[in-house]
Amino acid sequence: MALKVGLCILIIVCITTGFCDAGKTSSYTRSSDTSSDMPADAFPSPKGSNAPEQVHITQGDRGGRGMIISWVTPNQRHPNVVRYWKANDPSDVYKAHSQIFSYRYYDYTSGYIHHATIKKLEYDTNYLYELGSGDAVRQFSFSTPPRPGPDVPYTFGIMGDLGQTYASNSTLGHYMSNPKGEAVLFVGDLSYADNFPNHDQRKWDTWGRFVEKSTAYQPWIWTAGNHDLDFAPEIGEYMPFKPYLHRIHVPYRQSGSTSPLWYSIKRGPAYIIVLSSFSAFTKYTPQNDWLEAEFKKVDRHETPWLIVMTHAPLYNSDNYHYMEGESMRVLFEPWFVKYKVDLVLSGHVHAYERSERISNIRYNITNGLCTPIKDQSAPVYLTVGDGGNIEGLANDFSDPQPFYSAYREASFGHGLLEINNRTHAYYTWHRNQDDEAVVADSTWFYNRFWYPKDETASF
Ligand SMILES: *[C@@H]1O[C@H](CO)[C@@H](O)[C@H](O)[C@H]1NC(C)=O
Ligand SMILES: *[C@@H]1O[C@H](CO)[C@@H](O)[C@H](O)[C@H]1NC(C)=O
Ligand SMILES: *[C@@H]1O[C@H](CO)[C@@H](O)[C@H](O)[C@H]1NC(C)=O
Ligand SMILES: [Fe+2]
């Protein structure tokens, strides 16, 4: 009884003071810079004959001892070799050969796209690698992650919907100026080639050259978005994700997946599940079957942080793309809550938003229970579709701000997730108009398995 009275008083206080309406719509006024694409000549091919270009790397195995090295040679298939060695032991040089792919799309023929998987790397080690030959040798470097374990610190950058505008360049430059990020969780929509006539595939090439300054040096963990579909029957292009699947290779087989569009990896303290919003995911489909089996494989004693990536957000309060993640939410949200997913990262909406821990899994058609509720077993949903692509900002938020939305702002930027140990991760979001040191939104995330502390600031 006393509890009920207390609750009533609390509710009355909330209603009269508005104190409980904790969500923040940032009043920050962004500049009205248009985000036009950078010209192709801002990203010339590197010097030398048949020089390797568009170099990008991603984790190449389940646990972080492999790397897939990808690059394009414009004129000739060969050389198709990557030479690599430990930075502190240059006398011991290893070699791996690439598999070579190319594709045609409408009137375009790609260069030779190389994917080489290098294996049995040592954990927590700096490597150098070299591509090309003759006058076109190019050297890069990367660091391997620590062996997966509950208390190894690791920091991920978070970006999405990047494109190749001046704003995109600002986002990437800001991220790179921060020494903390060790790998990027990329939530989909890469080049935006499909915004140009006949999905101008040269835009994929300029994009590969644009992002190389980061993608050649640290792994980007890839998610596919709708702008990566390039499905265009009107010009005879019927294969969904054709350019994406040729250009991006991921270690999907190691997680038992049958498609590169959904897969998982373990990296340091994190178990990362990548989903495809634009592939079939209803019951009985390959993606659904795979995900159901996948959650059972997660060992939070080995990888405490469970992170899901998907392009279309399941919770977002912007009027752009509103409810496009709804069918996936109906199917997958019960698992996210049951298995205590820490974070769901998405893009698609060209703005930034962070949710409260909420769920909406009680509804069964007839019971009327169709409103989200606070749920400390539920993930936080982050929408980071604010990379800065040619389509501009999604600045039409629903009003009033729904209670499930903790912070939202229509500015370009990127996120950073600093995992300290099995219980604590510090998360920040940085808008492009500020110096990287300025933190526009920040919060501690407490691990849902090891330390499911109530994260709600005022409720
Ligand atoms: C992209 O940003 C970098 C700084 O991060 C700058 O040096 C470069 O000039 C920019 N490129 C273009 C085309 O604006
Ligand atoms: C739906 O929920 C209501 C209320 O909890 C319950 O009575 C009903 O049996 C449920 N229907 C089904 C099909 O589970
Ligand atoms: C985990 O990290 C947090 C934040 O840095 C710290 O306060 C806490 O003491 C750490 N836990 C352990 C067991 O070291
Ligand atoms: Fe999108």
TrEMBL record:
* Cofactors named for this entry: Zn(2+); Fe cation
What the entry lists under InterPro entries is as follows: Calcineurin-like_PHP, Metallo-depent_PP-like, MPP_PAP, PAPs-like, PAPs_C, PAPs_N, Purple_acid_Pase-like_N
List residues of the Purple acid phosphatase N-terminal domain. 52-144
Record's Pfam families? Metallophos (PF00149), Metallophos_C (PF14008), Pur_ac_phosph_N (PF16656)
- Write down the chemical reaction(s) this protein catalyses: a phosphate monoester + H2O = an alcohol + phosphate
The stretch of residues making up the signal peptide is 1-22
Residues covered by region (Disordered): 29-54
| Domain (Calcineurin-like phosphoesterase): residue spans on this chain | 155-352
Residue stretches making up the Purple acid phosphatase C-terminal domain? 378-441
Write out the entry's keywords from A to Z.
Glycoprotein, Hydrolase, Iron, Metal-binding, Signal, Zinc
**Biological processes, Gene Ontology terms:** cellular response to phosphate starvation
Which SUPFAM superfamilies does this entry report, sorted A to Z?
Answer: Metallo-dependent phosphatases, Purple acid phosphatase, N-terminal domain
* Domain of life, per lineage: Eukaryota
Q: Name one GO molecular function term.
A: metal ion binding
EC number(s) of the enzyme? 3.1.3.2
- GO CC annotations? plant-type cell wall
Family membership noted in the UniProt record: Belongs to the metallophosphoesterase superfamily. Purple acid phosphatase family.
**What is the protein's name according to its record?**
Purple acid phosphatase
Q: Which organism is it from?
A: Spinacia oleracea
